[in-house]
Amino acid sequence: MRFEEQRELMVQEQIISRGITDEKVLDAMRKVERHLFVPEHSRYNAYQDFPIPIGEGQTISQPYIIALMIELLELKSSDKVLEIGTGSGYQTALLAEMADTVCSIERIASLARKARDLLNKLNYENIYIKVSDGTKGWGNTYPSIKEFDAIIISAGAPKIPEKLVEQLANNGRMILPYGNRFSQILTRLTKRGNDIDREEFGGCIFVPLIGKYGWTY
Prior knowledge:
The protein is an alpha/beta fold. It has a single domain (about 5-205), classed as 3-Layer(aba) Sandwich (Rossmann fold), CATH 3.40.50. Helix content is about 30%, strand content about 30%. It has six helices and nine strands. It has helices at about 5-15, 25-30, 65-75, 90-100, 110-120, 160-165; strands at about 50-55, 60, 80-85, 100-105, 125-130, 150-155, 170-180, 185-190, 195-205. A seven-stranded mixed β-sheet has the order 5-4-3-6-7-8-9. Strand 6 (about 150-155), helix 6 (about 160-165) and strand 7 form a beta-alpha-beta unit. Helix 2 crosses helix 4. The longest helix is centred in the N-terminal third of the chain and has 13 residues, at about 5-15. The protein is globular.
């Protein structure tokens, strides 16, 4: 079976069948070639319903959980998005298909380099990647964005990273796995002035969010 056919089956059987309805999310997942973002020896599994190791103790999440997290962000084409955990760059590419600008932070230099090289090769011009502690936020790196319309955290946090909340625009949305090292609750925060609305969307398991405002090693 060709990758294009596998990708369509993924969308139909893993994404739509589980209730994802945002056409922008579905279009992005049909377009972005997931097999390019996994190690070559794992490409035969690229469109299967489970996470795949990408090296350095990290994984690319299962397609459904990525689709769910992005749908919960309720992205608009004008949005500026901050991604914590570039990983292989797959989710980064999906976000770039839907938003104006994606700023992505990866703490592991080798993963950041591979993702940047691949995304450049695929001609994405609205993605910016830096190697840093993602729990501290984007900072003064180019492009100079002080507040983001959406923030997505692709690692389990032991607490809400306040530095990231500070960088969320009014009416901005943050999605993150929140809990302990071994299980988390998928949580959406919406900033409304000085208040934060919080919603929960079920259990999940992610690698730990490492950093000053996350887990220590």
